[in-house]
Amino acid sequence: MRNFANNIFRWYYQRRFNQIEQFIVAPYQTQQAQLTELLYAARNTEWGKKHNFSTIKNQTDFARQVPVQNYDTLKPYISQMMEGAEDVLWPGRVKMFSKSSGTTSDKSKFIPVSKINLKQNHIKGTWDTMTMLYHRRPDCSIFSGKNFLMAGSNDPYGPFPETLCGDVSALMVKNMPYVARPFFEPDIPTVLQSDWEDKIEEMARVAMQPEIAEQIKMIGGVPTWTIVFFRRILAQSGKNNMLEVWRNFETYIHGGVSLAPYREQLKELLPSDQVNYWEVYNASEGYFASQYELNGDDMLLLLDNGTYFEFLPASEWDSAHPIAIPLEEVEIGKNYALLVSTNAGLWRYLIGDTVMFTSTQPHKIKITGRIQQYINVFGEEVIVANTDQALRVTCTATRSVVSEYTAAPIYMETDEQGGHEWLVEFEKVPENLPEFKQLLDQNLQKINSDYEAKRYKNMALKELELHALPAGTFLNWMRQRGKFGNQHKVPRLCNDRKYVEEILGMLGEGC
Questions:
Q1: Could you tell me if residue 281 is inside a domain?
Q2: What's the Rg (C-alpha) of the chain?
Q3: H/E segment holding residue 87
Q4: Distance between CA atoms of 411 and 436, rounded to whole angstroms?
Q5: What is the pLDDT of residues 199-210, one digit of tens each?
Q6: Is position 239 within any domain?
Q7: Among residues 313, 372, 389, 361, which one has the least CA distance to residue 494?
Q8: Is 459 helix (H, G, I), strand (E, B) or coil?
Q9: CATH for 417
Q10: Please, are residues 142 and 12 in contact by the beta-carbon 8 Å criterion?
Q11: Domain extent for 399
C-alpha cells in the first residue's frame, strides 16, 4: 500500500514538473502575470487605493508608484491587520502572521500569511521541492515511509486572540493537507508545543521507537537545530550515528543558513554518500526557491508561486530612494538585496536577504547573506558567503570541524590597526590553533580581493583574531536572547561589536 502511495505522489510530481518547465522557458512573462494578478487582487484594499493600483499597467508604473518598503514602513498596516482590520494590505481579513527576527525597534516582526499565501506559496513550495527531488531521484521512496517534522510553535495574539502568530513552519504544519498527514511524525500537538527543549526530548523519544525509526525517510530543518536534535537522539540511544537509528533514511531538506560550516558534522551523523541533501529558501516572507539539481549548490527561483521579485543592486542599499531592477535585468555574479511583493500583502518589501544569480537560464540563485550581516568598516566588503567558504576550506585543510561562529570588526585605535575578531565554537578543534587562524585569514584574502587589499603588508588591517569558545556557548547565548528554537539562526557577521561583546561578556572575558 505504501509503495502504491509513493507512486501516486511520483505521478503528481511529474505533472507539476511540467508546469515548472513552463515558467523556466518563459520567466519574464510568468513574473509579469504574477504582478498583474497581485495588483488586481489588491486594487480595492487600503494600500491598493493609496497607491492607485488600478492605474498600474506594468512593472515601471509599479516601481514609480510604490516606494521600496521595509518592516517599519509596513508595521502600522500590519498592526491594523493583526487586530482584525480587513482589506488593509490584502483583501479580506488575514488571521495568520509568521513571527520573524526583529528590527532595531522591535524584538520580533510579524509577517502576514493569508490563506492563499499559505496554500499557493509556502505549502506549494514544499510540493515543488519534492517535485524537483523526485525528478532528479526517480527512485525516491519518501512517501513509502515516514518523514520527521521539526517546527516552531504558534499562539494567539494577546490583544486580539482571533489572530494566530508563530513560526511559519508551525503555521504550515497546523494547516498541512490531510493527504500528507499520514506520512509524517511526530503528531501535530507534539510538533507545535512551545517549549523547545521539552519538544526535543519528546521528539527524540518518538524518533527512537523501533516501529517509527524503521520508517523514517526524511527530515527537514535548520542545520543548527537538526544537529542538536540528532545529538540528543544519539545520547539517548547510545548509537554512533543516525543511520544506525534510521536505517532507511534518504533525504535531509535544509535551509536558512549555508550548509558549508556543518558539512563535516553531518558526514559523521549521516555517514553515507547515498543521503540526499536538498536546499530550500523558505523564509517567513515566502517560499522562494528550491534546489534544482541533485548535486547543485544553488536554487531555482520559484516564479509562479504568488510572488513578484525585484532586486536591489549593492550600490542602492544605502540610498534614501533605492532603485530596484526586475528579473530580466539581473546579472550573474552580482550581489542583490531581494524585494518581494506577495499574495499576503507585502509590497516591494525588502526582506533583508542578499542573493547572487549563478544562472539566468534557468534563474538560479545562492543566498549570500543578509544586508545587516556583513563587515565593511574598512572597505573590505566581507559577506557571509565569503566567511562560510573560507571557513570550509580551512577546516578541510586542518581536519577540524566548526559548529558555529560569528565575527565582528576591531576598530582602529590611535596606535593600533583595525581588524576582524572571530568567535568560533569547534566540534573538532584543530591541532594547531594559531595555524588555523593564519590559514583562515589567508583563505579569506583569496576569496575576497577587497579584504586582501586591506590586509596587504598589514597596512590597513592586521591579521584576524580568533577565540575558540567552549562547547555550548552559542546555544546558551541564543537561549539568553530568547532566540532558542528551530527558526532562529546564529548571526554570522555584524558591522559593529554588539554580538561579540555580548558573548565575551557572558563568558566573563571582557571586551
A1: yes
A2: 23
A3: none
A4: 23
A5: 889 999 999 999
A6: yes
A7: 372
A8: coil
A9: 3.30.300
A10: no
A11: 374-506
For residues 227 and 244, give the distance between their C-alpha atoms in angstroms, rounded to a whole number: 16
Query: Domain check: are 284 and 389 in the same one?
Result: no
C-alpha to C-alpha distances, 310 to 252, 262, 322, 338, nearest whole angstrom: 30, 31, 12, 6
Provide the 3-class DSSP secondary structure of residue 276: strand
Shared domain for 378 and 287, answered yes or no, is no
Burial (Cβ within 10 Å: 0-12, 13-18, ≥19) of residue 15: exposed
Of the residues 257, 275, 291, the one at which a domain ends: 291
**Grid cell in block for residue 403:** 559548529
- 29 in a domain, yes or no? no
Looking at residue 391, its amino acid is: L
Tell me the H-state helices in 163-306: 168-174, 188-192, 196-208, 210-213, 223-237, 263-269
pTM: 0.84
pLDDT single digits (tens) 451-509? 998 898 887 789 999 999 999 999 999 888 877 666 678 899 998 999 999 999 999 85
Residue 350: pLDDT over 90 = yes
To which residue does cell 521512496 refer?
141
Q: Is 503 in contact with 421 (CB distance < 8 Å)?
A: no
Please, is 277 exposed, middle or buried when counting C-beta atoms within 10 Å of its C-beta (0-12, 13-18, 19+)? Answer: middle
Of 350, 317, 302, 326, nearest to 61 (Cα)?
326
Which of 434, 103, 385, 90 minimizes the C-alpha distance to 260? 385
Q: For the packed helices 196-208 and 223-237, what is the interaxial angle rounded to 10 degrees?
A: 60
Give the pLDDT confidence score for residue 223 in this predicted structure: 86
Q: Whole-angstrom Cα distance, residue 395 to residue 95?
A: 46
Beta strands 160-166; 96-101: pairing state:
parallel
Q: In total, how many domains does the chain have?
A: 2
Question: At which residue does the C-alpha cell 510538533 appear?
Answer: 191
Q: Of the candidates 260, 291, 322, which is a domain's last residue?
A: 291
pLDDT digits (tens, 9 = 90+) for 216-260: 999 998 887 898 899 999 999 999 999 999 999 999 999 877 787
The x, y and z cell numbers of residue 313, run together, are 543592486
Domain-located, residue 412? yes
Mean pLDDT, residues 177-191: 89
pLDDT of residue 510: 46
Instruction: Work out the number of other CB atoms within 10 angstroms of the CB of residue 437.
Output: 20
Give the CATH number, domain containing residue 132.
3.40.50
- Per DSSP, helices labelled H in 290-407 are 384-398
